[in-house]
Structure prediction request, 398 residues.
Amino acid sequence: MTKQDVFEAYDQYVFPTYTRLPVVFVKGKGSVLTDIDGKKYLDFFPGWGVSNVGHCHPKVMAAVRDQVSKLIHLPNNFFGINQAKLAREIVRQSFDGKLFFCNSGAEANEAAIKFARLFGGGERFEIITTLNAFHGRTLGALAATPQKKYQEGFAPLPQGFVAVPFNDIKALLAAVTPRTVAVMIELVQGEGGINVATPEYVSAIRRLCDDRNLLFIADEVQTGLGRTGKMFAFEHYGIEPDVMTLAKGLGGGLPIGAMLARRSVAHLLQPGMHGTTFGGSPLVTKAALGVFEAIRRDKMIANARRIGLYMTERLKAMQARFPFMVDVRGLGLMIGVELSVEGKPVFDECLARGLIINCTQGRVLRIMPALNVTLKQAVKALDILEKVFTVTAQQRTI
Ligand SMILES: Cc1ncc(COP(=O)(O)O)c(C=O)c1O
Prediction:
């Protein structure tokens, strides 16, 4: 197929649910993507947070190659070795409890929402979420995503969700009623604009959940697996959530989601209460084991901290030259640059110059390279961004 054939086939046969860019990628290695014309791009937003270990990491490829010739799928009424190993590994790396495996972030959050309903025992069901949160597109996850642009057209949504401003302790406490059962939060809002929860806020959530017997649900779908410079973002705050959801980076590119609930409440989910045909198959769980091995072997978390620091410091230094850079914020390699101008032209110009980033909420550039990105690649990416900002500044003075 030529590039034009691909565009025409999409036009004819695929729903236009995404704003697609006119590029057809055919190969990926680490932080580099190659398109159908052979042009190379630095990918500083790999798979929207999926390819944390870079495209086609050797450990993931070896794991998948090994498994694909043995057993690809196994229904969940049988035991699987890789699922057992992966559950044990996630618990070892986070907190003690039990896992439910599914196929995506939205599904992991659906599992968490259903789990909270069970925890509430029919009397308590309200989940407090935060404004600008993003938890997924299925109806339950969407109800927990209080953004008009995503919810519009899909009413009625499931009931029982109350949204409060992020990082606002007073608003959080004021939202608690006798029906409240959980607080569900991204510790760093991703799609919402790289908003980092303050330590005081997270401590207040933990205290509230302890005092009122609520579940603290941490959506680590985007922050998990080393992204913030720790294996999980909750580690920055010296607390443990009661429920954690994972997806994106967990499968190294293969679709997997997971919900972990702490052991003292794990008994609530009993046979027949929840399920999915594909969840936690031998293939995807083997890939996820490869991801953990890759992160450990290549010391990616330390690298994420080191490169994250370099990029954040350089971006902050750039603010002096470009006053339209309103704020630089983030944790580890989850970096946001808020602009006072529209981000789309910056994004487009970066793409034209061979750099892939993301723009969210209209004015926040989201930069989240793979955790094994090299310093040389980070320097090159910021050189490109600096050139694009120079053009932006010139256009603003014309
Ligand atoms: C924090 C968070 N939660 C949930 C989701 C939904 O994940 P998925 O697209 O795999 O359903 C996303 C996706 O961007 C996310 O960023």
Remarks:
- Residues 375-397 form the longest helix (23 residues).
- The chain has a mean pLDDT of 97.
- DSSP finds 13 helices and 17 strands in the chain.
- The domain at 3-53+299-397 is CATH 3.90.1150.10 (Aspartate Aminotransferase, domain 1).
